[in-house]
Design a protein that fits this description.
Number of strands: 0
Order of helices and strands: HHHH
Helix content: over 70%
Largest sheet: none
Distance between the termini: 26 Å
Structural class: mainly alpha
Number of helices: 4
Length: 79
């Protein structure tokens, strides 16, 4: 996540694309489909060098990321 956020801040399209691609797959692997879709959008923004659009998506990303973290913690607490 830090790499992705830094890529958006620094205008690094390649790093944005690679980070989003990796995170997209990781999110899908744990069943976080909405989060995976957001990373897919960011992956496309990286490819197209659309940093303004990526910045606009950051709040939504943070919201869904935090939701996933909460759910993971609940599962771990049950173990």
């Amino acid at each position: 996540m830090r790499q992705l956020q830094q890529a958006i801040i620094n205008g690094d399209a390649d790093s944005l694309y690679r980070s989003a691609h990796s995170l997209k797959s990781s999110a899908a692997n744990i069943g976080a489909e909405r989060l995976s879709l957001i990373f897919k959008q960011l992956e496309g923004f990286g490819k197209a060098k659309e940093f303004a659009a990526a910045k606009l998506l950051q709040k939504t990303l943070q919201h869904h990321y935090q939701q996933v973290i909460v759910e993971i913690r609940k599962i771990l607490d049950q173990s």
